[in-house]
Specification:
Layout (H helix, E strand, L loop, with lengths): L3 E8 L2 H10 L6 E8 L17 E8 L10 H15 L6 E3 L3 E4 L2 E12 L5 E11 L16 H5 L5 H22 L5 H5 L8 E3 L5 E7 L5 E5 L4 E4 L5 E2 L9
Helix pairs in contact: 2-4
């Protein structure tokens, strides 16, 4: 896959910009970055805060041949790619299922996969948004206790272009593996960077559970308080004490 990067200064959302380009026929591998977003968003409609020029805000257009049920797996694919990219910078980030990366319990990256389907329910494209806190030295309000940045973790300034290049390289490799073998082909590597077992979640019925594993389809397997092992599909679990920082 060839990436074509379109750098923007200030826009409403990299997700919205790629959506517009996708509707005009942009090819797979189209990438939009921004120094600042006026209306960045995260999963379940959350708004996202970013300081101008201090985050890597990027959305990637993918056109997978996959059923709609497999689309949530792309958040996991993106998380693995980012975790591996950050490891090359000496940052050991852990993936909090399904779409956050944490360092020492603080959020450094958020991921959002949004799909568009045709009238027959076939996936037309997926926009994978990635927001990484790069060079913040502080965060406003409650975020101060729940978010971190690569600069805070490593003590040095990080170049957005260099981080983007490494992220895209890992994403290209992991996306190709996913296309060939599904999430099952990435499961072991993903678990190697994950908070599982032990991630605390709220189950679909509203009770609290403890994540134990992830299935070959990306489903979270969590132990309920009554001992039941509950399968949770992407997007249903609600993380305890969510931390919202970088967005896309």
């Amino acid at each position: 896959m060839q990436f074509a990067v379109h750098a923007r200064d200030r826009i409403d959302s990299t997700q919205s910009e790629v959506q517009r380009m996708a509707a005009e026929g942009a090819p797979e591998g189209t990438v939009v970055t921004a120094r600042h977003q006026r209306a960045g968003r995260g999963r379940r409609g959350h708004e996202w805060w970013d300081a101008p020029g201090e985050s890597l805000l990027v959305s990637v257009l993918l056109r997978p041949s996959a059923p709609p049920a497999a689309v949530p797996q792309l958040s996991l694919v993106g998380g693995l790619a980012v975790a591996e990219a950050l490891a090359t910078a000496g940052v050991a980030a852990r993936i909090r299922w399904p779409n956050d990366l944490l360092v020492d319990g603080r959020k450094v990256c958020g991921i959002l996969a949004e799909a568009s389907s045709d009238g027959a329910g076939r996936v037309q494209h997926v926009i994978l948004g990635i927001g990484i806190n790069l060079n913040q030295t502080e965060f406003p309000g409650a975020l101060a206790e729940r978010a971190t940045s690569l600069r805070l973790v490593t003590g040095r300034v990080h170049d957005a272009g260099a981080v983007l290049a490494v992220v895209l390289a890992h994403l290209e490799r992991r996306y190709a593996a996913w296309q060939a073998g599904g999430f099952a082909a990435l499961r072991a590597a993903w678990l190697g960077h994950a908070l599982l077992p032990g991630q605390i979640v709220r189950l679909p019925d509203g009770t609290r559970g403890v994540g134990e594993d992830v299935g070959e389809d990306g489903t979270l397997l969590a132990r309920a308080s009554d001992g039941r092992l509950v399968a949770v599909v992407s997007g249903e679990a609600i993380e305890e004490a969510p931390a919202h920082a970088a967005g896309h």
